[in-house]
Design goal:
Number of helices: 23
Number of strands: 16
Strand order of the largest sheet: 1-8-7-3-4-5-6-2
């Protein structure tokens, strides 16, 4: 449940065509379904009687693929920038390479095989060849050939190849899940909302939906099987329902619900330029979580007082190679300048888990969430880490930058990361590059060991930001992406509240500030609890800021603090929720 929204029209219309899921992003969307699912590219080998006809089919599939890629490249260049568009230039080179296309045609003529067979066999030969080369650039070309082959094969088979960047009408995206690179390609003008089979409120698809400010329902388990391409769909991101082929009565009901929600947003918007002050005069900071410089506009439109989490990994995604120092510098500079002196907390590269980069040869792991990711990757790949830190340090003069290291489990990791940062700072100074003097350096608290030993960390860090999305799953030993154990993903469990309290007390004992950048920070049940525990900064999806401000202005910090001991001594999550509702309603 998004923080602070009113329970208007919550009864809904109970229909056979309603699919229940998890409300991931507020709002109601009504549009045609766009299936973003990989097509079945299997085919049966058949003899041919006309090689020329097969070559014609191949040429046509190549030409359609070329036209699509040109459109995608132009869209990517316009929306994200030249560097991101370069991956599609590589794909176009493959499509136009006679050394690859001619052998396909020769195979059709000489071996009398279908275009599909010629395409697949020739492509596989080149993919194997490139994969075995010593040169990293050449190995990357194997992935380009693989991607292009799938596209051409889909057209040969008459299958629809999904391209979110090519959507040019109002749609609701239907998918098993949306990867960060999928969501990066979504055309915000046309994508009205989305629904997925898997995921929860803290999955990346849900977080991106809130960032894009579009309604979303995740974790439906069956949406891709229940909806056909082009069918009319309603996504109710307030209640967590999807209605397939709605009746006229359904449409009337949900259009009214859309209007009611729009009016509620207008009320929230009146607080855009107001400070976040409790009913007893205590001020806290409401910041936003972002993934790209383009997200800053949404932060400012929603009255954000800072950026509590800039997820820099999106700079590294959807590319064929690592971003350069200058590319990163431009992105960080843009965010800092747009925020005009308001604090910007930048998290250093956090890849691994469910965030993979195709051009990095990361090991396959049985449990990647507990594996070689985030700071662990950066400390072993210092060249990648140092490039990012140099870019951040160079950009620091353009605003109020704070740097945060993710996934810190031990003091040694923090000390090592900070030493590398200071080393790069000295190098830049020797090069006469200006660097800000007042950069605060902190850590994300997302590992229980760090939360437990927060007193020791508090002596050395400048701030903490509690990453509850991972802290909860690690504390409860419950994978947040696994629906079968989703009942254990309990933000209000006393174990979580005691860890959060321990971190806040440790920081305040050393006169350091504490933020929270997990989704819990924007949750209407959690906000009163966190206020009472003394949290200084709440960072959330931009769309949650104004509802949270509305809620906080009606709460007394002193009153909530008086319930602290009672809440921390409770036995279950349910008891906590019941108590908070009783005291705040």
């Amino acid at each position: 449940m998004e923080c602070g929204h009113t329970n208007f029209l919550t009864e809904g219309l109970v229909e056979e065509n309603m699919i229940e899921g998890i409300a991931a992003s507020n709002g109601v969307a009504i549009a045609k379904a766009y299936q973003l699912t990989s097509p079945d590219l299997t085919f049966e080998k058949k003899p041919i009687d006309n090689p020329n006809k097969e070559i014609e089919r191949l040429d046509k599939a190549l030409e359609i693929s070329k036209q699509e890629l040109e459109k995608i490249k132009a869209h990517t260049k316009k929306e994200i920038g030249d560097e991101h568009a370069e991956i599609f230039s590589a794909h176009l080179l493959v499509l136009g390479d006679p050394e690859m296309i001619n052998p396909m045609k020769e195979k059709i003529n000489n071996d009398n095989v279908m275009a599909e067979v010629a395409l697949e066999e020739t492509a596989n030969m080149f993919i194997d060849m490139f994969k075995n080369m010593d040169n990293e650039y050449m190995r990357e070309r194997a992935a380009d050939i693989q991607d292009v082959t799938k596209r051409v094969l889909a057209h040969l088979l008459g299958a629809t190849f999904p391209d979110p960047a090519l959507i040019d009408e109002e749609v609701i995206v239907i998918a098993n899940d949306l990867t960060p690179s999928d969501t990066a390609q979504l055309n915000r003008q046309f994508v009205q909302g989305f629904a997925t089979d898997i995921g929860g409120r803290t999955s990346h698809s849900a977080i991106m939906a809130r960032s894009l400010e579009i309604p979303a329902v995740v974790g439906t388990k069956e949406i891709t099987k229940s909806v056909k391409q082009g069918e009319m769909v309603i996504v109710d991101g307030i209640e967590g329902n999807v209605i397939v082929n709605p009746s006229d009565e359904d449409l009337k009901f949900y259009r009214e619900k859309q209007e009611t929600f729009a009016k509620q947003k207008e009320e929230w918007a009146k607080l855009k330029d107001e400070p976040t002050i409790t009913s007893d005069g205590e001020q806290v900071e409401l910041a936003a979580n972002i993934g790209t410089p383009e997200d800053v506009a949404g932060v400012l439109d929603n009255g954000g007082e800072g950026i509590g989490l800039y997820r820099t990994e999106f700079l590294y995604m959807g590319k064929s190679e690592l971003p350069t120092e200058d590319e990163q510098y431009d992105a960080y500079k843009s965010v800092l300048e747009q925020m005009e002196g308001k604090p910007v907390v930048v998290r250093t590269l956090d890849i691994g888990g469910d965030k993979e980069l195709s051009y990095l040869d990361l090991p396959d792991e049985l449990n990647p969430f507990l594996g070689f990711r985030a700071i662990r990757f950066c400390l072993e790949n210092e060249n990648v880490f140092r490039t990012q830190l140099r870019a951040l340090l160079r950009a620091s003069v353009h605003g109020n930058l704070k740097i945060m290291f993710p996934m810190i489990a031990t003091l040694e990791e923090f000390r090592q990361a900070k030493a590398i940062l200071l080393d790069e700072k000295e190098d830049l100074k020797r090069e006469d590059v200006e660097v800000a003097d007042n950069i605060e350096v902190g850590i994300m608290v997302e590992i229980p060991s760090t939360a437990v030993t927060a007193k020791q960390f508090a002596k050395e860090v400048d701030f903490f930001s509690i990453g509850t999305n991972d802290l909860i799953q690690y504390t409860m030993a419950a994978d947040r992406m696994n629906e079968r154990v989703s009942y254990l993903y309990q933000p209000y469990h006393p174990a979580i509240l005691n860890l959060v309290n321990n971190v806040i007390e440790a920081a305040h004992g050393e006169d350091k500030w504490v933020g929270m950048c997990g989704e819990m920070a924007g949750d209407s049940i959690a906000i009163p609890i966190l206020l009472g525990l003394g949290l200084d900064e709440f960072s959330m999806s931009a769309t949650s800021i104004l509802p949270a401000r509305t809620q906080i202005r009606g709460l007394s910090k002193e009153k909530m603090a008086s319930y602290k001991d009672k809440l921390l001594s409770m036995g279950t999550s349910e008891e906590v929720v019941e108590f908070v509702k009783e005291k705040t309603e």
